[in-house]
Fold these 3 entries.
Entry 1:
Amino acid sequence: MREGRVVVALGRRALSVQFRRAQLLMPTFVLPLVLLAVIASGTSAGQGLRGFPDVESFLAFVVPGTIVQGTLLAGLTAGIAMASDIEFGFFDRLLAAPVQRTSLVLGRLAGTLSLSVLQTAFFIVVAALFGARFPGGVAGVLGTIALATVNAVAMGGVSTAMAIRTGSLSLLQSVFPFMFVFLFTAPAFFPQELLTPVLQDVSVFNPLTYVVEGVRGMLGGDSSLGSPLAGFAAAFGMAAASVALSTFALSRRLRRL
Amino acid sequence: MSAAVEVQQLVREFKGGIRAVDGLDLEVRDGEIYGFLGPNGAGKTTVVRILTTLLRPTAGEARVAGHDVVRDGDAVRRAIGVALQEAAIDPLMTGRELLRMQGALHGLRNAEARDRATQLLERVGLTQAGDRRVGGYSGGMRRRLDLALALVHRPHVLFLDEPTTGLDPTSRAALWREVRALHEEGTTVFLTTQYLEEAEQLADRVGIIARGNLVAEGTPESLKERVGEPTVHIEMSDPDDGARACEALAGLGAVERPTERAPTRIGVRTAAGRAAIAPIVRALDEAGVAVEFVEVESPTLDDVFVAVTGSTLEGAGAA
């Protein structure tokens, strides 16, 4: 109960600070939408290619890519914020408090989770306003939000582990481009069948493939677009591993003090 | 009187074999203000970080409020309040938000944390600024907020690491008042400082640290007494009275005769200090020596510092 209050307090702080810091707000809310606009308008002709799934709109097909991109960036900003706390000494304030060390990690990730709920809902609403239709209905949207938040926590766990391990804000900022490599080696904006053979092989081993396809399946209300179960399995697997990694990184850091 | 902080043979070695703390022993009594004085790089902050569980010692033992800092870190953290050297406060949060968050970290329920935040903002004079983001606070306001944050859970032992560094005199005086008030309420205060005046004004006892070790410890008065006796300086009206004055004062202490550069100035070194003024003036009056003024010069903590470390506080800091 006590630790629950700690996690909630830290999560609330993480979320409120996110909205007060432009350099964290831009990549999480604005950048994915800009990329969505570019992709949706610039590559929509791809829908006519043979092998492209039978979907109602190209926009609705690429929105899952935007949602997953959002979760990557939400996760990355968790690490950036953690590194900033370490570099500027705020983390010491937290370490000097009588709280379980895992609560410090979970509090940060609780903020990421809340951010992802808002972010995913925002992307879906904006896409709907621009004409995307989601046959999966309310259940599909709620399932998508759930899957996106688990994935955001997974990504947050990775970046938080890096932040705790290195304590370097600049290193976390330099990770930003690699997030895109991770995203574009999954069928985020194009069907897996239409990727080049090499990329197709890589995408099989990229857990984001299953997450993005799971979202696509839920929003499209069509499991042939992707398996929600596989998506949740991949996201939960990554989340469990990355949260364990970040708590391990914290305990190592504390041992090295 | 029991010990709030006990340190035995504490060592902290950093990479490259640098010993920031080198076999330190010290004891802080319950309810006292302990001034931990030393130049930059002397090891003050390292000691504070060990005592607040933010750093592990390489060797030795340290107990705070009866708990071992390594084996029972959580109990130590429950008993202490910490305001570190750099007031690490999130500039994007408001003072009230930070206090409420700190309350949650110390196990206060929502309503309790909200009430405590209001009380503390009032206590440190930040009620008006409480709902503003900390990024807009002045240095003094940040320090006061930092102090309030350290007090959220009414700690038994309060660690203040150079709380007034960089503050203007008004902010410094306000913080001193607050530290005195906490002392009156029974809080033990472990205060590190590089300001002699601060140690002298606030501390019941002072420990001087140099190169990672305690080189002197005691009340400010006892430390100064160790260095030497106070000197009563007399400024005479007439330089021709020098010999007569020296003769009259011979029984009252060690007389420092007038010099060519100061032919009207005589000094009397005596343990009596201020109490010697009356007999000195009486003796000079009886000898017919006219006096312009009298002043007492006592050794300062700076003199103590020079005596125990061989350098001034500023000089040692630069080294």
Note: Chain A touches chain B at residues 2, 5-6, 8-10, 12-13, 16-17, 20-21, 85, 88-90, 92-99, 257 (CB under 8 Å).
Entry 2:
Amino acid sequence: MVGQVATAAPPAAPPVVQRPRRVRRNYTPYLLLLPGLAWLIVFFVVPMLSLGSQSLQTGSVESGYSQTWHFQTYVDALSQFWPHFLRSIAFAGTATVFTLLLAYPLAYFMAQKAGKWKNILLVLVIAPFFTSFLIRTLAWQTILTDNGPVVALARSTHVTNVLQWLQLTSNDSLMNSRFAVICGLTYNFLPFMILPLYANLERLDHSLIEAAGDLYATPIQTFWKVTWPLSLPGVVGGTLLTFIPAAGDFINSRLLGNTSTVMIGQVIDSEFLQVQDYAVAAALSFVLMAVIVVIVALYVRRAGTEELV
Amino acid sequence: MTEKTSGDLKLKGVTKRYDTFTAVDDLDLVIPRGSFFALLGPSGCGKTTTLRMVAGLDQPTIGQIWIGEQDITDTRAYQRNVNTVFQSYALFPHLSILENVTFGLRRRKVADYEKQAMEALELVQLGHIAKKKPGQLSGGMQQRVALARAIVNRPDVLLLDEPLGALDLKLRRQMQIELKQIQSEVGLTFVHVTHDQEEAMTMADTIAVMNAGRLEQVADPATLYECPTSTFVANFLGQSNLLKATVRARTGTVAELDVHGVKLRLPMDRLKATTTELWLGVRPEKLRLVGPSKDGDGNRLTGVVVDASFTGLATNYLVKLPWGQELMVVQQNDGTRSAARGTQVTLGWAPEHGFALNASQDAHAGAQDQADDSEAI
């Protein structure tokens, strides 16, 4: 390309005084964008369109589907499965709050106090990823099993009664209950909360904490006036990374729950693979996506306008 | 915070030890109320550690810290009526300038916090940017905000940790003057930590020179410069020529010294060292090129000019003495004398411009630290 431009320049032009300014477009960024863009088109845009079209078709697997723009499917799906939507959001929201409560002190300790133990702790946080999601969830069946030590301890300390009163369990066991599902969700998504919080808190300038103390703020005031507002980007990142996949999760509710803890992900899964009602399954997928987008947008907007920027 | 603790800041036998390293070693210091006090020393001399202990950010291993009649050693930073201007300013990035300045007042539930904060911002001439965030300000402005945020609380002691270190030379000079003015305006005790000897001398009433965790000398700037009591101070504050001398006679008001066979004199009141062997010090600007005349009782040394560099204001000479030692001479450009390289010259100085130091000390102590620091600037 360089050669072409050079030969195209008029040879008669005085070479020193006036050099025509060549506007060279730099196409490299666009070229670098191509693989990702292609990936998104093939594996996101096309499936989305296909899913959208599927949700508006009528027919059956045996007789074949035809595009009928049947919006009634959405109404039917929602009227039948709205409790599962609410339950999913409630479970995912509760699990997100618990992960935040567990992750924040841990991330703070790792980032600000751990010193040479920092890297070991990071590895320990990531270590569960070396085993499969399914195995980790199944492990909770063993942990919460009726004849295990956890249940024995919970019974002897009357925690089971409290959980029952909170309607998180329906009897004096822990397995196959709302409690078990929320435990599984909390456990499985904990690293997604810890890592963004850690990345944020590690950058926290310790002299700001000292400055707050110097300006008469007690440690608790320092936390709420300085540390917490400065860590909000990490909190927002962590809660999103936890809430979004937790809301669509179908493993925890299946392996740790019962028939009254079915989450929307589980419904979509069975509509696709067992009931094989593709239209309803596709419609539910779309509604789930829309619900999450709305919740996230409201949340980010609220968190964003207050302290961030 | 209910009782007013105003008074002198006293450090009594304060020591700070880390695993194997003693940062501050048995420090005794009284900083009078309302004074502008500088802690001066090279990097790692323990001055910042001292400051952090006064602020309550570090705990002394041994020793006590008092403000007036109150022992504050065991109180936490937020309980002390002491404020710090941090080296990095440490402004809260998520709060506006006004919110930064009101932070301390609001924690103490001061009623008219906004009015007081605006007054403090006016004092540092930044009233117009109260609504901005720290990230939108230049380094010099952030420095003033940090100062306003601290002085608005009217602390018993205001600590400044190398507050001008991040500013460029011109701004630093300007801020030195402003800080000094603000201090005399508000009348608070300022404790200023710096490694810049010129900054300390320009601003402080009293300077404590620290080295390796210990105090070298505490005095006003002029005394420190004219009568250093250790080779470290002599070399760290400005430059010094140190000559190995032996006391021949201590008669009346003047002592007679022998420097490599040359007879030199020093007033007795400047001869604090009691040993016979000592370092005779004289500042380069006190030495002058003189004619070989025998005028009066001035000290005389002869040597050969090995280097001469003209700086405009003065000419800096390096004069080699017969025994090989080289003396620095700063000859003011007052048109009187000059000498070319290689010429034989006579150096003269008034005996009262000399000072004597104990000969057991390293003649180069402090010289290297100063060279390092001036390069870093």
Note: Chain A touches chain B at residues 205, 207-208, 210-219, 221, 225-226, 229-230, 307 (CB under 8 Å).
Entry 3:
Amino acid sequence: MELLRNIGRRKLRSALTISGIVIGVLALTTMGAIAENFNALLDGGVKYFSSNVQVGPPDGQSASLLPIAKIDEIKQVEGVATAFPSYTFTAKPGAVQAVSFGFPDLIIAGDPAENDWSVLKTTVAQGHLLDPSSTGHVVLGSTIDKEFKKKVGDTIDLPVRPSDAKPDFVNHTFTVVGILNPTLTAPDTFAYMTTADGQMLLKDSLPISIRNQVDVSQITEAIDVYAKPGTSISGLDSIADRINGQVSGVKATRPSVIVNSFKSGGAIFTAITTAAALLALVIGGLSVVNTMFMAVAERVREIGLKKAVGATTRNIMGEFLLEATLIGAIGGLIGYGLGVIITVVANALTAPGTSTLFLITLRLSLFALGFAVALGAVAGILPAFRAARLDPVTALRNE
Amino acid sequence: MRLVDLRKHYKRGSEIIRALDGVTLDIDKGEFVAVVGRSGSGKTTMLDLIGLLLRPTSGLLLIDDIDTTKLPDRELAHMRAQKVGFVFQEYNLLSGLNVLENVMLPLRYSTTRAGGRERALELLERVDLTDRIKHRPSELSGGQQQRVAIARSMINTPSLILLDEPTGAVDTETAEQLVMLLRRLNKEDQVTIVVVTHDLDIAAQTSRNIRLKDGKVLADERVGSASVA
């Protein structure tokens, strides 16, 4: 109680000091929430790509087309447990996606059984996952579902017809059979369909001149290769090397290469945002140092009296440290609270179907609040030390 | 309490200031002592030494047969909390605390806190401030503030109360009342009181006057008139 009264003694000064911490923690919370959001997206990528080997056409091949028979060849490679064909199409052809913190809307076609092998599992919030033998069905990720406002049983035309579609543009009507739970990463903006439907869309995407000359049932865009569960990323790298050595006409990418590029992107982003926010906090911390030094100067007689009535050096040090810590904690709580409100409102105002920008995690919350408290405590050390070392005789007779 | 050849010397440049210069005396339990002398005679230095706020340059200072000159800072702080009560000329009450909280302040640094609130209320009753316990110091007169300071000095039931010019900031009538209060506490609680003053009228109402000059004891006299009105 006395601590709060001490802080309240100089209301304007305390308010300005606390404001410094508030701004710092607000910056840390909001910028940290952007970094956390970005990291969650990247973590999905890291998780997915560290569980399989991506096989595509060899370098230099313009079209992403592979004979589906390559799957059987790849399955013969030592360490390979299974392999699936994979097709990817843009869900909104012609849409401009400049700078975005989310993945674009994509149509992913393949064998639903792949979900059992992938580390990045998807689960349905409504309806059910795809039946491998079905056609004309689609399962929507949570974000793309919000964008098109669909519920199970509704139909959706995919790919979405662009406003300036050419006369030969073709799309198909699919029935929504399932809506996925949010994953905070790639699957949220994906529409999933079976291999047969993927091959149908592949055919539609081919130039008219060759469209009817190609048997799309014998073609895949890419192959996702899985080893037995629990295989390390270096084990998957070795499998990629063996595929490249033993199977012609394909290019297997080492998972570690993809994973490392995701991780380095996330690390740079986190470093930039965190550094900017920490800078704001350090400035706030300096204002706490200043305030506490002034508090010591103003309360010299009080310190002298407390020593006279039995306070030890440690008692005085503790009281001033606690006061500085409380300033940090109050500033931290207000800054964090404002940060949460801003991020929640900003996320709520994000257009439906667009990936949100902020993600408040427990880790970020603990860091923001913990840092504010620690900053107050650290900023209080020097002033508290000066207070505790005051000579009681001099302090008592200070004018 | 025993002071044996107690000295406190300061260095000011190349000059040595002998603030207290070889004082030897005993103060018995329950005595009401006035330390008098001119400015610079060493009164306040002696009070600071007895109150364990200062360390002597040499000599012995025994309180309850404990040689305090050998004690570490932490032990000195504990002794101040348990055995010594202070009253200052400027009261030194904390403006952020009310009367009751000011009286209870020393309990915060004491090992015996049980029953502290009841004792504070009892002391405030004895100094006739029961109706002011929630007031802030700024809402009290000088005499009332000094009575709060006296109550605060007694909260830990010390064996020794030290007062530095306690009536220096109040009018004559209030000063008289404060001295009467001190005499009553001295008699009722058998607490030893040492008061530093330049006011000879106050000194005359104590049981013993120690006169200092240039850091030495010039005179040490018993005063016979001390009696509670």
Note: The mean pLDDT of chain B is 89.
